[in-house]
Amino acid sequence: MHLIALYLIGVIFGTGIVVSGMANPAKVINFFDVAGTWDPSLIFVMGGALIVTAVGYRLVFGRSRPIWEGRFMLPTARNLDPRLIGGSAVFGIGWGIAGFCPGGALPALGTGRIDVIAFVGALILGIFTAKFLQNLSRPKAQAA
Question: What stretches pass through the bilayer (predicted)?
């Protein structure tokens, strides 16, 4: 049942991305082009997502525990470290240049477009590169 719920959540998310037009990189890039062909529709998509998220949080955290887990697993770190800021910057720059974020690119893979395939390939390569660099720095940090 857990996997079915995860699948349905992915289908709903992907459908929302496609219906909202966020799988189209030109629509996203036009949002950032405030001096040219500015398209404010991304604001409405984000606003709708915030409303759904707020309602979802109220419903979920109104329960004593999650459905498939014994307790809620929430992040405890509150500090802004260089890795968080750098990762956020890379994400934002990549989103602005390519017009894709991972959430929009995965549903767009179904189009078979080469730019989507290249973006997802670069995304996967970036994940493995970050893990590799993290593993390189970990032994040094533990030895110190």
Answer: 41-61, 82-110, 116-133
CA pair distance 84, 78, nearest whole angstrom: 11
Integer Cα distance of 144 and 138 in angstroms: 10
User: What's this model's pTM, rounded to 2 decimal places?
Assistant: 0.72
CA distance 107 to 112: 10
List pLDDT tens digits, range 17-37.
888 888 888 888 898 888 989
What does the CA dihedral 29, 35, 40, 42 come to, rounded to 10 degrees?
A: 30
Half-sphere exposure (Cβ direction) of 50: Cα atoms closer than 13 Å = 6
* CA pair distance 104, 113, nearest whole angstrom: 13
Q: For the segment 38-66, what is each residue's pLDDT rounded down to a tens digit?
A: 999 989 988 999 999 999 999 999 999 98
Cα dihedral angle (132, 123, 13, 61), rounded to 10 degrees? Answer: 30
